[in-house]
Each structure stands twice: as C-alpha cells, then as structure tokens.
Design brief:
The protein is built from no helices and 26 strands. With about 375 residues, it is mostly beta strands. Strand 16 and strand 17 form a beta hairpin. The chain starts with about 20 loop residues before the first strand and ends in an 18-residue tail after the last strand. Helices cover about 0% and strands about 50% of the residues. It has a 5-stranded mixed sheet, with no helix packed on it.
Length: about 375
C-alpha cells in the first residue's frame, strides 16, 4: 500500500511446461535399380521436440507386389532435443518388375510406442537405368543384287529422361548400308521406327551369305549408353532370260531348208537355270527343229549354240513372208520368258502353185 508500506499481499503462480514431441526427416530422392538388385536410401532424422525420445521407424511400398522395405534401425536411439541420426531404407527390386516402371517408398517416424506420425519422406525407385536404349529386332535379310532392300527396326528409350540417339549402319563387306533417319530424339518410353537401306551390286550369286550389318544407337548425352544389333544378310534368287536380236533370212532359189544360227540366249538370273526352247506361230506346212531344245546356264552366263532349222514345204505358201516365234522359258520360274521373231522371205513366187507365175511389167 502507498499509504502504509507495511500493508502488502503476495501470490505465487505456478507454470507447468509440457514436453512436445517432434521430428523431421530429410527429403526423399529418386534412384534407379534393376530387377533383383537392392536400392539404398538414407535419411537424417532430427529431433525437433522438447524432450529426449526414441523413434519407431517404418517404410512401406506403394506396390504391394514388391518385398517390404527394411529400415535400419527400426527404432532409433534416444535423441535429445536438437540432435539427429542417420537411418537407411533398403528396397529390393523384384525380378518381375518391368523396366521403365517406378514405385514409391514412404518412410515414417513416430515417437516410440506412439501412433501419431511425426515425420515422413517419400523415395522413388525407377526400374532400369536413368539413360537406356533398345534397338530391335535383329533380322535375317534376303536381299537382291542390283537392288536396294529396306530393313526396318525400332529404337526405344528405356530410360527415365529424354535423349537423342545417333543411328549408324555398317555392312561388313563394305557394301552400301545407310540408316535413315541417322538421329532420333525420344522422351522416356517413346519409340520410333528407323530404316536401313542396303544396296547390293549386280552379279552376286544366289544364296551367298554376306557379312552382317551392324546397326547401333548411341546416346548423345552419355557415350556409355548404346544398343547394337546385327542383321544377317543372304543374297536372294533372281530369275530371268533374254534371247538375242530377231533375224531375217532370204530363201534362195531351190532351197529346201533355212538354218538360223548365232542365236544368243542369256541367263539374267543369279543362279543356274534350265531354259526350254520352243517355237510357235509358223504355218504348219513348215517343219521346224531346235537344237538343243533346252539349255542350262549358270547365272549371268550366255550361250550362242542355238540352231533353228526350218524345212520348207515343196509348194511355196501364198505368203511371201513367214514368221516363227522362238521362246526361251525358265524352269525355275516359268513366268520368266523371252521371245524373238525369226522371219523367212521368199524373193520369187514361181513355186506358189508348183508352176511359174508371170507378173506383167506395167509402166507409169
């Protein structure tokens, strides 16, 4: 009291400070792992509460088909306020996990014996590599001489980040093999078809096995990331035939037969073939023989040994010109044939009826 300082009153207030439990876990990260391998994550557990406590630690997988993650330790040591410790989470990628997929792993911290979650962090396991590429399929190719064969393949980005790949094709014998396009850019999981243009020179024998084509896709971001396949190449069969030029023969007076010689036949294919030689189109009054009536030639080889003899009828036909068609037909492929015309010309008509015929000369 100001009037009497001896008069006073006092009271004592009591304050009770309750302890607070708290914790933080360092943030989760993303790691890559292959099937059957184990991926390790580490976290820092920090006691942000006001009392010293131990923590129960647990981890769970978003994909129930994965083995349960293992946290070490399952229960931390007692941490005083402000102190921290490091924990690990081990995740085994199952053998059935598909490359290119991912799974979330969540780790939680609780006060030992309590149910409330004080802190959590989520990690991501990506199945496969951060950068990976596939090139498929390897093919067995039948290519034809003097032609360009188109061989298709697919480039696929198996990684978890976009990438650009350089595509190359090399044929072991130095033949022309060109990849198109020679560069592709793909996002994660994307794919694109490419083509290899293989050009063979003419004259290669059928069924010849050539050196393989090496096709590669190389990451432009990481030179250690690539995919390589080999295409096996065999020369395919070509069939074809060509006869030489048409011929014309003048029938001499009193001739009984005419022989066509120097007739060229060429095997345009790349394998041994037999060609049947036939004639058609001439009047039945003429008798014709072909020697030989079949010819066997290796691929690319020609022959001039054909002889066609035409035996003339005793009485000259009405037509002064008579034609026959000489045809060569492949036995390997009967659709492959070649024909030429052989012509006979009478210069006189005196034998047309077996007696002389006089044609008057008329002046203009």
């Amino acid at each position: 009291s100001r009037g009497d300082p001896q008069v006073r009153a006092e009271v004592v207030d009591s304050v009770t400070i309750n302890s607070i439990d708290g914790a933080t876990l360092s943030a989760g990260i993303t790691r890559n792992g292959f099937p059957t391998t184990t991926v390790i994550f580490t976290h820092t557990l920090h006691n942000t509460g006001s009392s010293a406590i131990a923590y129960d630690l647990n981890a769970s997988s978003a994909d129930s088909t994965w083995p349960p993650p293992i946290v070490t330790p399952a229960t931390s040591t007692v941490l005083s306020p402000g102190s921290s410790t490091v924990i690990t989470v081990s995740v085994t990628v199952p053998p059935t996990a598909t490359v290119g997929t991912s799974n979330s792993i969540t780790v939680t911290a609780r006060a030992s014996g309590a149910s409330a979650v004080l802190a959590s962090a989520t990690n991501i396991v990506q199945v496969g590599a951060l950068r990976a590429v596939a090139l498929e399929p390897a093919r067995e190719v039948i290519a034809l001489p003097d032609q360009t064969t188109v061989i298709t393949h697919t480039v696929r980005n198996l990684g978890f980040t976009s990438d650009t790949y350089t595509i190359t094709a090399v044929q072991g014998d130095g033949l022309s093999a060109i990849a198109t396009p020679n560069q592709v850019s793909l996002g994660p999981g994307e794919s694109r078809d490419i083509a290899v243009l293989l050009t063979l020179p003419p004259g290669l024998p059928a069924n010849t096995s050539l050196s393989s084509i090496r096709i590669s896709a190389l990451s432009q971001s990481d030179s250690t990331v690539s995919a390589v396949i080999f295409d096996q190449v065999r020369v395919g069969l070509i069939t074809g035939v060509a006869l030489g030029s048409p011929q014309l023969r003048v029938i001499p007076q009193d001739a009984t037969s005419i022989t066509f010689t120097g007739l060229v036949i060429e095997n345009l294919g790349n394998a041994t073939d037999t060609f049947d030689i036939t004639v058609s189109g001439i009047d039945s009054k003429f008798r014709v023989t072909v020697i030989p009536d079949s010819v066997t030639l290796n691929g690319g080889v020609s022959d001039v040994g054909l002889r066609v003899t035409v035996y003339l009828p005793p009485i000259q036909p009405v037509a002064l010109r008579n034609d026959l068609i000489l045809t060569a037909t492949s036995r390997r492929d009967p659709t492959q044939r070649s024909s030429i015309r052989l012509s006979l010309i009478y210069l006189t008509r005196q034998n047309i009826f077996g007696e002389p015929i006089f044609i008057p000369i008329m002046s203009r």
